[in-house]
Amino acid sequence: MPRTRHLTAGTALTAAALLLVPGQATAAGTLRISKIWYDSPGSDTRTNTSLNGEWVQITNGTATAVSLKGWTLNDASRHTYTFGAFTLKPGKTVTVKTGRGTNTTSTLFQQRAAYVWNNDKDTATLRRANKTIHHTCAYNSTRYDYKTC
Predict the structure, then answer these.
(1) Residue 98's closest CA among 123, 73, 135?
(2) Which of 44, 49, 76, 84 sits 20 to 30 Å CA-CA off 37?
(3) Rounded Cα–Cα distance for residues 14 and 73 (Å)
(4) Among 76, 74, 61, which residue's Cα sits nearest to residue 131?
């Protein structure tokens, strides 16, 4: 009988630990930076194709559409992109590319002629229109070209 109690107590402790340990499951139900592709493929030639090879994805894991009007996305050097009138629908992802292009419901362009994201380390910060930090994602690696947040 004591063995059964230990197993039951151990099972309860394991279940409690799973609830307290943050993991990928905690990302569901949030609006967050989900991926940064910080080192565009090939040489950094500053062509529009190369500039658009670096981007940040923002995913809406909530059940509600979120207006990003006035929100900002910036790097550690304070290169800032301000969202215009844009609503991210529930369960959808928007890709914010560095270079020039025409905005769609799934891709926005910063309209820049220079790179934003450092190829070795940087931090992406998503701020609400009231300037409070909503989410950040940092990377520190030249081994990879992207970071899943």
Answers:
(1) 73
(2) 84
(3) 38
(4) 74
Closest alpha carbon to 75 in 130, 133, 128, 138: 138
Side-chain half-sphere exposure of 54, counting CA atoms within 13 A = 29
**Cross-strand bridge partners of residue 137:** 124
Check if the beta carbon of residue 125 is closer than 8 Å to that of residue 106. Answer: no
Q: Would you give the DSSP letter of residue 68?
A: -
> 3-state DSSP call for residue 56?
strand
Contact between 75 and 61 under an 8 Å Cβ cutoff? The reply is: no
Helices and strands (H and E) in the chain: how many: 2, 11
Report the DSSP beta bridge partners of residue 103: none
Residues 6 or more apart in contact with residue 4 via CB below 8 angstroms: none
Residues 111, 82 contacting (CB under 8 angstroms): no
Side chain identity, residue 27: A
Dist CA 17 CA 14 (whole Å): 5
